[in-house]
Amino acid sequence: MSFRISIGDILVISGLAYSIGKTLTAGRKSAPAEFGEVQNQLFAISNALKLLSATLQQEGVPNTEGAVGPEEDEILGRMVENCQTTLQHLDGVLKSYPELRTDIDKEYDDETARKRWRRQFKENVKKIKWTAEGADLDKLRQNLATHINALNLAIAARGCIQTGRTKAQVDLVHGMLGEIHEWYLNNLKNVPATPGRSKAANYGSAGYCASSKQLRSELELTFSVNLDISNHLLCVKTAFNPDLLRTQGTRIFRCLCGNHDDLDYTLLPVSLLVRLTNERPTWRIHAFSRAHNSAVSLLLSNMPSAYIADFKSFVAELALVQGLRASSTTGASSMLMYTSVRGDGCGYLSVLNTQSDTAGFRQEIRSITITSNELRYIVESIDSVQMLHYMMMMFPHPSEMTEKENLGFLPCRNAEIVLHTKSTMDGSDNGDITQLIVQFDHLTVVDEIGHTQGVLLKGVTGKAYLKNDEHLDIHQADIELTFTSHEAAASCWSSVNSLQRYLFLSYLQYQRLEEIISFRSNIGDVMIRDMQLLDAQATVVQDPITNGQRMIVSSKCGSKFVTMILSSAASGSLLVGGSGTASNLPAYFIDINTERTRVVEQSSGVISSFALLPEEDTNMSLCDV
């Protein structure tokens, strides 16, 4: 392994973080609240480093050796070294403040002097310059939070890469065995043992070699690639380069149609696969074109429905790897992806998942009117507008990471309209709004108002960021966007509506962030009305906000779903009638193909192939009836 910091070094750094956390305060009850938070972060770093060392040790066993490439080792090495630098600097600073150490009671025997020191220290705690840049305690907490998120992201990314490559190896071996079996049936089976057999076998081997590439292309994920602006077709049948996530600078694609060997595109730091909200399943990615020596925008579409799940899995893997690379250098913080820490101590990686088109109205917004509690505020001079939807991965507190399953990326409940205002030249700090974020979901009421050439979103939430670096929370407000023309207003309404449709599809297909899974089980091949779902999985999801429940039955390929709306009284179980059949439930049937996503709302019918039974009666929540 080319990792330049050993597992022993990681454990030493973990011990340093723990030691600093212990010496930071003389006692948790008597310590300033700010130090308690810093101490928790130091302990979190210590635990994350321990978990990282255990992950690296697991990768070192014979079955997984070499699963993670040298580039990931180099990135992780930089992360650990950056963390070590911060901790060593903090340790040096602490030596300048003996009143912080746990042996303070031994140094000051006089009770009055000791109390005076602590009182004076608490009063001036935020004046201490903790870092080489002269930042304060808040900066230190942000710095430590960045290290925690980066380490958690590294652990998650390496686990994802490890799992993905193991799966790829299994699929490759399975494909090769299939090819050998087919060659055997075509060339060896029922061939008489005669001198001519050698010739036939050699001919068959040649045929096997010639057909292996074609057969392999039929057994893997493929798609077409177009230029975004001109929609010029670059390749009709393309696949991802197997080394794309392993080696930086590798070509993104490899042509399988045999006519386009010049697909010389590589990843940029901003390269993510972002779903567009048009009816045809399409993803956009920004890449670097070596031929044109510039960045270009590419569109990927025409994925076979049998490989939709594999494609979305690759989308998540790419997001993790790109986040890992960003966190090792400048930090993952942009509109495309960013990390954050919430009050519960959990870290989050947010990655742009979906984007709706704003070209038809982005320069046509006249004003924005915010109405809340009978108060109105009007924002003018809009510079830009974006409609975005994120997916998020949660990293539990490091002390809980071995107990909680990482669910991967989950779609957020809400989408966002992000508006920036034009900056003023006078440099005044008058608290005016510089950025407005409006959050809405698939149930938000959105009206097009003809007489004002506007679009009204009712009962939304959001944030307003001010010039003085403060922000205001917006709750249950009506926000109206007014445009310069009816055409621009109609374009905005259409974009919001298409993003709401995507949010609804996301609700029907997946568990969302902060939702709870009551159970999940593989149920094999099932038939619900006229939809057949192969190698299906059934999942019951509960929304803690509305207490609503739904059961999502999904095919393994990710192109067919049946979502049934459950009664709240079911408490996570599908009520089974006395005849052993499931109730006739309201349901949505989703069928995804290369051209469109079709959704049909109808009752589920009487399902007799499976039913949910109480957990106390059987170890399997779903069973054949």
Spatial gap, N to C terminus: 52 Å
Helical percentage: 25-40%
What is the average per-residue confidence, as pLDDT, rounded to a whole number?
A: 75
Work out the helix count: 9
The unreliable regions are 61-68, 102-108, 125-135, 188-217, 571-581, 611-625
**In angstroms, what is the radius of gyration?**
29 Å
Structural class comes to alpha+beta
Strands, total number: 26
Strand content: 25-35%
Largest sheet: 18 strands, mixed
Described by the principal axes of the CA atoms, the overall outline is globular
Topology record:
Elements: H1 7-24, H2 33-59, H3 70-94, H4 104-107, H5 111-123, H6 137-187, H7 196-218, E1 223-227, E2 233-240, E3 253-255, E4 265-267, E5 274-276, E6 283-289, E7 294-301, H8 308-327, E8 337-341, E9 347-356, E10 365-372, E11 375-380, E12 382-395, E13 410-411, E14 415-421, E15 433-440, E16 446-449, E17 454-466, E18 471-483, H9 486-509, E19 516-528, E20 531-542, E21 549-554, E22 560-566, E23 586-592, E24 597-603, E25 611-612, E26 622-623
Parallel strand pairs: 5-9
Antiparallel strand pairs: 1-2, 1-7, 2-3, 4-6, 5-6, 6-7, 8-9, 9-12, 10-11, 10-18, 12-13, 12-14, 14-15, 15-17, 16-17, 17-18, 19-20, 20-21, 21-22, 22-23, 23-24, 25-26
Helix pairs in contact: 1-2, 1-3, 2-6, 3-6, 6-7, 6-8
